[in-house]
Design goal:
By secondary structure, the chain is mostly beta strands. The strands form 5 sheets. It has an 18-stranded mixed sheet that branches. A 4-stranded antiparallel sheet has the order 16-15-21-22.
Length: 491
């Protein structure tokens, strides 16, 4: 049968998409060291997660001596029908206590629940033992007052009405309406320094972080509770920036998120193997913005207007491994979907938990095209069918690309590339040189990181600290915490 006209096929696709309105908003959001990360949502979909729809909704809610690297052991998976976000284990205070925190490249502070919190969960549906931070229980801890330099630097000057001994407060609101408020403290952070091939030893540094005194929305729920959030953004308040300023690490980190076995690699340091090609970061942006130049499907370049690729306020392209799905401006979304399904006009779409899904019995990699995003300096991101579709039952596949216009007014012109398209790739954030790059990689293997003090290179292995859980490739999600810093903080 001859293919129907382009306009007719677009109408069919739009009819299938019409009911898929989502109430979510994509982002506006001595030696090496290691942190172990796992997923936030339980693999069995329990803990009150609410299935794929709830996981999907989380996406839009939601930023001395030079160490060669730090190893952050990871756990979890990265697909929309499984567990949720990746998290790691850190230790704070003296004596050190363990805290499970989400790793989030879209936010800029580390915070943990405080013992004085009136809405902080005491238990987790994930089966984790939660710990409330007690400033008085640590011999190395101290409260940051509003007249101290950290507070003034955070807020761009001394706060009005600030007097000695008044705590420096913080307030963060996330895109779903959940929030955290509290005050800043300074204490010892313990992490794993890489000291040899696959070997680490404890390292520590003094860091300033938030002591959460009140949580709102989902952050106050025990269903998928963690102890806090570890922001890996670019701001001076992030743990990475603080460690770098103290001469502890280079301002470079990398992750490799494994959707095959779970977990992966997350390390701070100068990655020397494998080599990755890079593209410049757009300067003076709050997120990891890059210059997208074109998109092609099956080798055919989409004919898109120039304004689609412009960078500015509320537009541009953001790389964020904290987001599960990929969000595209409506015009781009329609063109991509049209080209992807052009040779499959017999497919009937169905709404499954607010996803656009379809039955398909063959291999999606054999039956559908590769999508390639082209960036400045000739860096390409190849997205294969199994990375933009995800299985959701027997022979049922759902689309991992989303129409940004249906998410929020502020995000409608943003290209937000999330975890589905970044998984199984080594992604390097080199803030020293203001570039970001990636390469297809086996995230169950290892990478090599250089110790700039000794010149030695060390192997950092993959981890899955959630390996005791049962994970399946077709049931995972990484949630983006899109941050809007309220009160005195500026997004």
């Amino acid at each position: 049968m001859a293919p129907p006209p382009r306009a007719a096929l677009l109408l069919l696709l739009l009819a299938a998409l019409a009911p898929l309105l989502l109430l979510v908003a994509p982002a506006c959001s001595a030696g090496p060291g290691v942190f172990q990360v796992r997923r936030r949502f339980p693999a069995d979909g329990g803990g009150g997660g609410g299935g794929a729809a709830a996981l999907r909704a989380h996406d839009g809610r939601r930023h001395g001596r030079l160490l060669a690297a730090a190893d952050l052991p990871l756990g979890g998976l990265g697909l929309p029908t499984d567990t949720g976000l990746y998290f790691t284990e850190i230790k704070l205070g003296t004596p050190p206590k363990r805290y499970f925190v989400q790793v989030d490249t879209g936010s800029d502070i580390l915070w943990v629940n405080c013992i004085s919190c009136d809405r902080c969960p005491r238990k987790s549906g994930l089966g984790l033992d939660l710990t409330l931070y007690d400033p008085k229980g640590s011999s190395s801890g101290s409260t940051v007052s509003c007249d101290q330099g950290f507070c003034a630097a955070t807020y761009g000057g001394k706060l009005p009405g600030c007097t000695a001994n008044v705590p420096c407060e913080y307030s963060v609101m996330y895109g779903d309406g959940s929030s955290t408020t509290g005050f800043f403290v300074t204490d010892a952070l313990q992490f794993d320094q890489v000291t040899g091939n696959g070997q680490t030893q404890p390292g520590n540094a003094s860091v300033t972080f938030g002591c959460g005194a009140q949580q709102g929305g989902d952050l106050g729920s025990s269903n998928q509770a963690l102890d806090g959030i570890l922001g890996f953004g670019q701001a001076n308040t992030s743990m990475l920036s603080q460690l770098s300023a103290a001469g502890k690490v280079k301002k470079i980190f990398a992750h490799c998120l494994d959707t095959i076995r779970g977990g992966g690699i997350f390390a701070i340091g100068d990655v020397v193997q494998p080599k990755v090609k890079t593209t410049p970061l757009v300067p003076d942006m709050p997120h990891y913005n890059v210059n997208l130049e074109s998109i092609d499907v099956a080798g055919t370049t989409l004919q898109l207007p120039a304004h689609v690729f412009e960078t500015g306020e509320k537009k541009g392209t953001i790389i964020d491994s904290g987001t599960t799905l990929t969000y595209l401006p409506e015009l781009v979304f329609k063109e991509v979907v049209f080209e992807v399904f052009k040779k499959h006009q017999d497919i009937k779409f169905q709404n499954v938990q607010d996803f656009m899904c379809f039955q398909y019995s063959g291999s999606v990699d054999d039956g559908f095209p590769t999508i390639t995003f082209h960036f400045e300096d000739d860096l390409a991101l190849h997205v294969y069918p199994h990375e933009y579709f995800f299985p959701n039952g027997n022979d049922l596949y759902c689309v991992g690309f989303q129409n940004g216009a249906l998410q929020s007014k502020d995000g409608k012109d943003i290209v937000l590339l999330g975890d589905l398209v970044l998984s199984n790739k080594l992604v390097v954030y080199d803030l020293e040189n203001q570039v970001i790059g990636w390469a297809d990689y086996n995230c169950s293997s290892s990478i090599k990181i250089k110790d700039d003090k000794t010149g030695a290179t060390y192997t950092v292995n993959s981890h899955d600290i959630s390996s005791g859980w049962r994970f399946y490739w077709h049931r995972s999600l990484v949630l983006l915490l899109v941050t809007v810093v309220c009160s005195h903080l500026i997004c």
